[in-house]
Amino acid sequence: MNAYLAASAYIDWRHPLILGKAAELAGAGKTDEVVAKRCFEFVRDDVQHSWDYRKNPVTCKASDVLRHGTGYCYAKSHLLAALLRANAIPAGLCYQRLAVENEGPPFCLHGLNAVYLKNHGWYRIDARGNKPGIAAAFCPPAEALAFKALAKSERDFPEIWAEPLPLVVTALTSHHTVEQVAEHLPDIEVLSAVAGH
Question: From 50, 51, 77, 97, which residue has the greatest number of CB atoms within 10 Å?
């Protein structure tokens, strides 16, 4: 579980801004579930999704997401993981492969989180930000994610990563505007299983 509590380059929860906000959100919260919900709702509701709001700069590091109040789904998941870890709650990163429009191609990855709650184990949450047609919530043990992988070639990856995928970091750190990121959204090719092999 140590990997899901660690500070790192992009989940930099030891940064003073993160520590201050994490303590503020925890307040007098008596359980990990109460604190996790407060952290989730803050990132979902108070940090603007970069593309929804066409808001620069492009952020990746958790402290930068908090400082600028904006981030793509991936960056918002880095901030949520940092706030949770700063409160000693294990948190990781999850991904889905979704069609950019209603059906693909093109496809792109979508970033979300998993949090370890004492009463429920690993529980996935999606703080990308709600809008018409998207209503993610914190209601364990039921998942209420922003998206469901439905179309052919969409995937709901089961892994819980301690650190962001390198291709996600590259997408966020090698482009300077939200429009450039939108033109180069990260994706993972899904290989079909060959019958009999």
Answer: 77
Size (the chain), residues: 197
- Angstrom distance (rounded) from CA 134 to CA 152: 21
CA dist 74 and 56 (Å) reads 15
Is the pTM higher than 0.85? The answer reads: yes
Tokens of 14: 């030891």
Strands 91-99 and 107-117 turn out to be: antiparallel
Average pLDDT, the chain: 94
* Those residues with Cβ within 8 angstroms of residue 133's Cβ, 6 or more apart along the chain or in another chain: none
Helix %, strand %, coil % of the chain (to 5): 35, 20, 45
Give the DSSP letter of residue 5.
T
CA–chain centroid gap for 128, Å, is 7
